[in-house]
Amino acid sequence: MNKKNFLLIIAIIALAAASRLVKHPPNFTPVAAMALFGGWYFTKKYFVAIPLLVMLISDAFIGFYDWRLTAVVYLGIALMFGIGWLLKKNASWRKVIAGTLLGSIIFFVITNFAVWALYQWYPHTWAGLVNCFAMALPFFKNSLVGDLFYSLVLFGVYELFWFYVSAKQVKLMKI
After folding, report:
1. What is the spatial distance between Cα 55 and Cα 38, in angstroms, rounded to a whole number?
2. What pTM was computed for the model?
């Protein structure tokens, strides 16, 4: 990975994280998309630290919450990075969409299971677990739509940038 590509990926992830600071509908954020994007385009697995670090920085502005739930959210981000990492071979838009959907579902399941297991908000019964997930469905809708929207934006911006750069280079070569 060359320096320009690395810096472009970092810039896109940082802008995505910064958009968390702008008023938005609940759970309509770029968090999962930026992790999927990072996993897709970074060449080293340890770069999972970058989306996590960017998340940590934006959380410092937004405010932290219970460390246990924070750990689960960060685990979800790392898993989304892993999905991007696994799907990048033979890249296609279908894989981006499938990875986004899979990541959204996994994130929904682990975070809501954690809410049910870690807190006393719902009875620790099967009915309580079902109620916890049912109450989270409106937030899941926003997450899913936000994840799809931001994935298309992040991947689209990146690919359009390199398409434009390569078109410019071809044009210069013809002169």
Report:
1. 13
2. 0.83
